[in-house]
Design a protein that fits this description.
The chain has about 280 residues and is of the alpha/beta class. It has helices at about 15-25, 35-45, 50-55, 65-75, 80-85, 105-115, 130-140, 150-165, 210, 225-235, 255-265, and strands spanning about 85-90, 90-95, 120-125, 145-150, 170-175, 190-195, 240-250, 270-275, 280-285. Strand 4 (about 145-150), helix 8 and strand 5 (about 170-175) form a beta-alpha-beta unit.
């Protein structure tokens, strides 16, 4: 266990199951996943996996740190920031406020990459953030990879994740900004390119969890959310080997405008949907 049980006035007899129930009620007004949030926070406070907690620890005493964690979540701080990690494609990734939180919707990019380019030798991840896309593909294949980001802090997180996953010998990270002239001159060509660029409209209404806690530079891309696609797509062909594939994440209303940009550069375009059947990724060949 991470710490001792709560001994605050009137709470000494509180058990894990009761505390989770109360926390879920507390969080219901600010989270659509209140019960899950409470369980994840409690498991972390206990220092065990959620599955172990649900099986074996529901009658245990409540760790003293749990109440403060719940209050942080009630103020819209993302669970991933409180825990400092997020699960993605079956692996745990370090997360900080300097990076976007990897989300399950983005796993469709990894699934498409493994289906279309299982034998890729070199993989490029543009705007790598935590490195979740790149490292997931590298871990599932024999490929080597390169990740770029314009944020030194984000690259530090990606480095840490590569080390944690034992992949540091197969990846390289570079501080590069695709908005700068000559940014890609030394990168070479790749069999597979992954990219989850900023694509949120600058005036979009976002949940406080995202708006107040995730890096705006990785979210917003001009009035229509298309600014970075306009910059990147014309440059992709020069980074692709013959027969290469580029996979871009998109917002659920951006399939058509981003496809138009890609077809103008002579790409064939195919759409992939996420588990909620929303447009999520475009495959460019």
């Amino acid at each position: 266990m991470k710490d001792g049980p709560s001994t605050s006035s009137g709470r000494a007899g509180l058990r894990v199951a009761d505390a989770i129930r109360a926390a879920a009620e507390r969080l219901a007004a600010t989270s659509e996943t209140a019960r899950l949030d409470a369980e994840l926070l409690m498991a972390d406070a206990l220092g065990i996996e959620r599955s172990d907690m649900l099986l074996r620890a529901m009658r245990d005493a409540v760790p003293s740190s749990f109440a403060a964690m719940v209050e942080r979540r009630a103020r819209h701080e993302p669970v991933a920031h409180i825990l400092a990690h997020q699960e993605f494609f079956g692996r745990r990734f370090k997360v900080t406020p300097d990076t976007l939180i990897p989300r399950g919707d983005s796993e469709v990019l990894v699934e498409a990459a493994l289906e279309l380019k299982p034998d890729a030798a070199r993989v490029l991840d543009l705007g790598t953030g935590t490195g979740a896309l790149l490292l997931s593909v590298i871990a599932e294949t024999g490929a080597r990879g390169v990740g770029t980001d314009r944020s030194p802090a984000a690259l530090g997180v990606a480095h840490d994740n590569a080390d944690l996953l034992g992949l540091e010998e197969r990846v390289r990270f570079h501080l590069l900004d695709w908005r700068q002239e000559g940014w890609a001159d030394e990168l070479g060509c790749f069999d597979l390119i992954l990219c989850n660029p900023p694509y949120v409209e600058e005036n979009a209404a976002l949940d406080p969890d995202v708006r107040d806690h995730e890096p705006h530079g990785a979210l917003f891309a001009g009035a229509g959310g298309l600014d970075d696609y306009r910059i990147l797509i014309p440059q992709l062909r020069s980074l692709m080997e013959d027969g290469g594939v580029a996979i871009l994440e998109i917002g659920h209303e951006q399939a058509e405008p981003v496809s138009v940009l890609a077809r103008a550069q002579k790409f064939a375009v195919n759409l992939r949907r996420d588990l909620a059947n929303r447009p999520r990724a475009l495959i460019l060949t």
